[in-house]
Amino acid sequence: MILIRDFQVQIHWPGEFVFGCDEQDCNNPEEHIGKKDGGLSWMKNGSFMVFRRLEQLVPEFHTTAQEKAAGVGMPPGQLEARMVGRWPQGAPTRLSPNADNFALGNDEMRNNNFEFGSADPQGLTCPFAAHIRKAYPRNDLTPAAQGATGDDGEEKSEADTQKHRIMRRGIPFGPELSPSEKSEGQTHHSRGLMFVCYQTSIANQFEFITMNWIDNANFAIPKAGIDPVLGQAQGASRQRTFTGAQPNSPSGQGPDMVLERDFIRPTGGGYFFMPSITAIQTVLAR
Which helix (H) or strand (E) holds 34? Predict the structure, then answer.
């Protein structure tokens, strides 16, 4: 599978998503190691699917940003963008750190054409805990680098990162915010996202991203904090920390911001196998 973005070509081997296709080499981000085997012949061209129904507590997210923004010296909208890693129109803070950019956000050839790593090593434009950086650290140095730095460290990290990718799609549900929800800062109507993703290893892809990246306060660097949008704190207390709200902090991280509530609430889901049309017509139709 070759994804073309501007003048860059990024290779990602389809065996990470579909059985029977070339699998990613865990040591080289540009090479493959043969076909991904599902274990049964009829699994070829099939994929594992994860489905989740995610309620989004939008008024609570906006209220929290309004409450916390003054403490970090920025408008609430900019704080929200730094928690997500993107502005409302889709422009990444990595490329547009101080303001939204409608043209950038709507240009699919540009709004994903960026890296972290050496381009933002301190998290000045996009915090390490921001949702898009947690869920896909791109070429950030990760523990997989095993102490290596520079190009060598980035290549080792990227090879490992590509082994944990997912192919995802979201379907929104629910109404727009009502006037009472906006004024009270509380959710009255269920809304959110029907999340679907495909992979050839749920444990090494969907579950790995959730547990080892999103909910890991020490990924990709120590004390990075938990993903402030999708992250879930363990135990009865929902309190978690977000580090990196202040873009002008000398380290890029700044003091921890305490978040007292969840913004996304899983309400259902399941794991499934999605067979090929051939498998449905032959083996599974019997």
Answer: strand 32-35
The pLDDT of residue 135 is above 70: yes
Separation in Å, CA 38 to CA 16, 17, 18, 164, 278: 11, 11, 9, 17, 15
- What is d(CA 192, CA 53) in angstroms, rounded to the nearest whole number? 8
Q: Determine the pLDDT at residue 7.
A: 37
Question: What pLDDT is attached to residue 8?
Answer: 43
Q: What is the torsion angle, in degrees rounded to the nearest 10, for the CA atoms of residue 249, residue 250, residue 255 and residue 256?
A: 80
Cα–Cα distance for residue pair 15/105, rounded to 1 Å: 30
Average pLDDT, the chain: 90
Number of Cβ atoms within 10 Å of the Cβ of 181: 19
Following DSSP, what letter does each residue of 165-232 receive, concatenated?
--EEEEEEESPPPPHHHHHHT---S--EEEEEEEES-TTTTHHHIIIIIIT-TTSSSTT-B--TTT--
Residues paired with residue 272 on neighbouring β-strands, in sequence order? 49
Nearest to 199, CA basis, from 13, 2, 11, 6? 13
| pLDDT surpassing 90 at residue 230 | yes
d(CA 64, CA 57): 11
190 has pLDDT over 90: yes
Pairing of strands 47-56, 32-35: unpaired
Distances (CA, A) of 9 to 30, 150, 152: 10, 21, 20
pTM: 0.91
123 has pLDDT over 60: yes
Cβ count near 129 (within 10 Å)? 33
Cα 50 from Cα 170, distance rounded (Å): 12
pLDDT at 247: 72
Q: Give the per-residue pLDDT at 12.
A: 83
Pairing of strands 240-243, 2-5: unpaired
Residue with tokens 């929200």: 80
Is the omega angle on the peptide bond into residue 220 within 30 degrees of 0, that is, cis? yes
